[in-house]
Specification:
Blueprint (H helix, E strand, L loop, with lengths): L1 E4 L3 H18 L4 E4 L6 H12 L9 E4 L1 E3 L10 H8 L11 E2 L8 H14 L5 E4 L21 E4 L2 H7 L12 E4 L2 H5 L3 E6 L5 H7 L19 E5 L1
Parallel strand pairs: 1-10, 2-3, 2-6, 3-5, 6-9, 9-10
Antiparallel strand pairs: 4-8, 7-8
Helix pairs in contact: 1-2
């Protein structure tokens, strides 16, 4: 794991965008794994700037998002589908057919998970996966547990995650209790991983991620056995 300490959110965003941009320039048909939440917003803004300056072309890029709330429509303002289009996809030249986000409003979540995993395998896996980290050490929506699911699956969100995400909703009761998420094996099969962590509340999980110990109670700690992880941390 390569640790890149930075002194500002702006520098974090620019460094993450630089890594993603270099990946696309070196392999125009790259497969990106993308994250949502507050941390990567700046990275998306920087990537949009690079595109608008003519320095980046997304026309051959394929993307897979990590997760989606179960039960939210595509148009719901707190769905990750809405987030991605609002903050990124609507502003670059990515092909609609190359965008993949789990369908939160699916009538058959189990089949949706199987289909999603099949689509990832069809393109040969993810070249570069962008990750954030939850205050409880989750990545995607893989929550701390004795057992972790390997592949894309439906997950019951922890009370800690529900509370943390309630800031995006009108109140705690509006936060979905379940989500679809890539599993840890799917994430770990990515050829390269960028993990971004910003804010004092991420200190404890990051200390566990870099401790040398691996525990399913801190899902992000499994990243320590991946051979190409860049941790960008304040």
């Amino acid at each position: 794991m390569k640790i890149k300490p930075i002194s500002s959110y702006s520098k974090m965003s620019k460094l993450a965008a630089k890594i993603v941009a270099e990946q696309i320039i070196n392999k125009p048909n790259t497969v990106l794994g993308l994250a949502t939440g507050g941390t990567p917003l700046g990275m998306y803004r920087e990537l949009v700037k690079l595109y608008k300056k003519g320095e980046l072309d997304f026309s051959k890029v394929t993307t897979f998002n990590l997760d989606e709330y179960l039960g939210l429509s595509l148009e719901h303002p707190q769905s990750y589908h809405y987030y991605m289009y609002e903050n990124f996809f609507n502003h670059v030249n990515i092909e609609e057919k190359n965008i993949h986000i789990p369908k939160g409003d699916t009538k058959d979540p189990v089949q949706e998970c199987l289909n999603y995993e099949r689509e990832i395998e069809k393109v040969g896996g993810i070249d570069l996966q962008v990750l954030g980290i939850g205050v409880n050490g989750h990545v995607g929506f893989n929550e701390p547990n004795i057992n972790l699911e390997a592949r894309t699956h439906v997950i019951q969100l922890s009370n800690e995650t529900i509370r943390a995400n309630s800031r995006f909703f009108k109140n705690l009761d509006k936060v979905p209790r379940k989500a679809i998420t890539m599993g840890m094996a799917t994430i770990m099969k990515s050829k390269k991983i960028v993990l971004m962590a910003w804010g004092i509340e991420k200190k404890k999980p990051i200390l566990k991620v870099t401790s040398g110990h691996i525990a399913t109670e801190v899902p992000a700690s499994l990243l320590q056995v991946h051979n190409d992880v860049i941790l960008i941390v304040d």
